Amino acid sequence: MVDAARYDWLVCPNRALDPQFMGQAARRLFGYPEEATLHFIPAPTLADPNTRLVIRNALDKAEHVLVFFQEKLGGELGISKTLVSPEFSFDWTLIELIDVDPELSLGRFGILELQTMDFHGSYKHAVQLVSSALTNEPSTFHEYLRSAAGKAALSKKMEGPNLSNVFKRTFYQMVYKFQLAGHSECAGGGFAIPRSVWMSWARHLASPRLLEQQDGSFVLVREGDHAPLLQGNSWIFVFELDKSNHSGSDGTIDSIKLWKVIRTDAETLISLALRDSPELALADGGPISSVTSKARQKIGKLWPDVVPARGREQGPTLF
Description:
By secondary structure, this protein is an alpha/beta fold. It has helices at about 20-30, 50-60, 125-135, 140-145, 150-155, 165-180, 195-200, 265-280, 290-300, and strands spanning about 40, 65-70, 75-80, 90, 90-100, 105-115, 120, 160, 185-195, 210, 220, 235-240, 245, 250-255, 255-265.
């Protein structure tokens, strides 16, 4: 990742609820061909007679039907805690409908997680200002957001992206859920992240190589590994804002698109993050070598007498 580069950061995960993108991820998890008809059904709409009719007609024609559950769309599904395993909820649970006559028959399920970016600071002030604007002037609210005052309100007491925290918070659950996706009834597991988040992950994964496949997807590989044998069906779906698709004249972006589809597995991620990256950090001239010099600088500011100024002759030192 080039730190000087500018990227689009996405904060609200609901912003990525794009039907086309989610459909592409679902096809990859379940192995549906691109040309096969897929009905992607939000769970709450099952109460609608029209949705039920669509499903019945689709099943009669042997078309694929996936029902999905999400926090605001039917509620999250997941696993309960036990004495030997933690509780986990899945951002998205996709499940195949095989039949509804004479009764419900379900097929495989898929797990899809969605991770955006956290920022340093608190959203409290921004939410308070924006909520007040919506309450006081609802008819001009969107114009306010596009104004200088509105943009300032959205960033009130907010700082830059919390890059390391997002990876540390995500890595454990990503590896754990990729392992859960190995269950015989699970079609596969996926993590969906913006391109900017993927770029920020690179250093945590020892700047991994991506090996391009014939179908346009990629495989995450360790250095020197030319033909990895991956376990299970685990994917990282990297998306970006589709700047070619604007709504109206204000330039608002209303859709996202896949940037890279990357196959991996839990063992590869563990090796990259917990073996390869630390090993490189420990190499001669690596970042671990700078710890004592940084400590010397800080001690010098607190106790100048014992740390001679740069350029002056020094006596023996433990550092």
